[in-house]
Design a protein that fits this description.
Length: about 210
């Protein structure tokens, strides 16, 4: 790794990727919702889809598509609105689930292809990829990099690892609550809370 990035660059990239991945956002909130309602096995397609989606977006930014998104306000706004609309719709679905026995795979309905596609409507992922491309791929501590392809490959590996690890962590946390949530109205209250967080996330993404 140190042959691609120097130590300072590598540490900064790891910290930035971890902070962006583990901070609450659309993916982590959805993973928690799926795990707490349907069990951890149901989260596997989504937790695998997220890293692939991030990889495709990282590669897209490496090819210059990320810059195009930032330079065309209407395109950036469209991504925001579509992503936010989907999050709000999922919030509505969560609010309608009151008991564990009511849950089935159609409730949240996020399979592998949909999980990958959802990443392209997550403006947080685009911002992460654009920042990494501009700070660690094209530049090397303020100077034009001499090994952009190697930097992109390693950055993609780091980002995919963080994406999977963060979502699996949230999935495990959600699954641990599953048994406790099966009693009384706990699941309904928890789902209302998650729905609120999803709705708040949608509003937050409109402001960034």
């Amino acid at each position: 790794m140190l042959s691609v990035f120097n130590l300072n660059e590598l540490l900064a990239l790891l910290i930035f990727s971890a902070a962006m991945s583990f901070s609450p956002g659309p993916n982590t909130m959805l993973t928690t919702a799926i795990a707490s309602n349907e069990g951890i096995r149901k989260t596997i397609p989504f937790t695998l889809a997220v890293p692939l989606g991030w990889l495709l977006i990282m590669l897209s930014c490496g090819l210059g598509i990320g810059a195009m998104i930032t330079e065309i306000p209407s395109l950036r706004l469209s991504i925001k609105f579509l992503g936010c609309a989907y999050l709000i719709w999922l919030s509505y679905k969560l609010c309608r689930t009151k008991k564990l026995h009511e849950v089935n795979s159609a409730k949240l309905n996020i399979n592998f292809p949909k999980g990958v596609l959802l990443q392209f409507f997550n403006i947080k992922v685009w911002l992460l990829a654009i920042t990494i491309t501009g700070t660690w791929i094209i530049d090397a501590e303020g100077q034009p990099s001499t090994n952009p392809n190697e930097r992109l490959a390693l950055a993609c590996a780091i980002v995919m690892f963080m994406a999977f690890t963060s979502n699996m962590t949230y999935a495990l946390a959600g699954a641990l609550f599953r048994t406790w949530l099966g009693s009384g109205n706990r699941l309904a209250i928890f789902n209302y809370f998650l729905a609120f967080l999803l709705f708040a996330t949608a509003i937050w993404t409109l402001c960034i």
